[in-house]
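Entry 14. Structure prediction run on the chain below.
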Amino acid sequence: MAELYLVEFKGFRKEYFYNTYYHSLNVSDYVIIQAERGEDIGMLKKKIGIEMDFSHTTRPRSILRPASKEDVIELEKIREKENEHKNEIIDFIHKHGLPMRVIDAECQFDGSKMTVYFTADHRVDFRELVKDIAAHYKTRIELRQIGVRDEARRIGGFGICGREQCCSSFMVEFAPISTQQAREQDLPLNPSKISGNCGRLLCCLRYEAEIYAKCKKKFPPPGTGVKTKQGEGIIERIDVFNEEAIVRQPENIFFRTSAADILSSFSPSTPEVIGSVVTEFDEGDLEDETKEELKKLEDSGNAD
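Output returned:
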């Protein structure tokens, strides 16, 4: 079986390709790949060491050869021209009076195609625009409308964690995200804290949500009274990473217990105040404006 590689193109766009012809390849080198029509150039990001199932997607095409020094020099020239093309295309858009914003222009390495990425609030009839651009550049033109998540990926940047955006570094495809994943991880439902540079829900909300949900199912919810091998008390919170419940006794003495050591549970006779760590969300306490922002984040985050 031919080796499988992840290849990155302009705008952090990534696709898988097979080393069908068994070239000697090194990560971070440029390679010429088989495009839908013709040839393109990209950088090898990593070798895939596991088998992947492509039965429900298009089978990866082939890496044709390693790029030469001349190819890399030509790529630099193409990138310079693309900046000029972008400005020229903006002029064409103004001429047609279309409500769209050009994000980027990307030329295929062999010159047989140019893709124009743009954003717009609604669908745009750009048929006449395409005719003008194709006549001007004498090549095949594709206008591709993208969402704000793809826009953030193409522009690049750093997340609130201080690291390069997930979408620009290793992610190949966007997956649906919901505010429920923030709830599972006891994160505050503050739109500014759980949204990324794109203004949508953070992609990283998905990474640990399953671990939190799986662990919490083993314990009664915070605020529940429990009898354990160590004594009785009220569950204050769940320490997910150690898979333990923090239990508070009436004398404000705390101890830890595993799910296996909980013998039974009961409802406290008086409502208990959970400690400083917020473990449960009461959406009734949220401002209407915040609720609306969260709804927009969730609705639009799965539409791009």
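The helical segments are 69-96, 127-137, 148-155, 166-169, 179-184, 191-194, 209-216, 288-301.
Filed with the rest of this week's runs.
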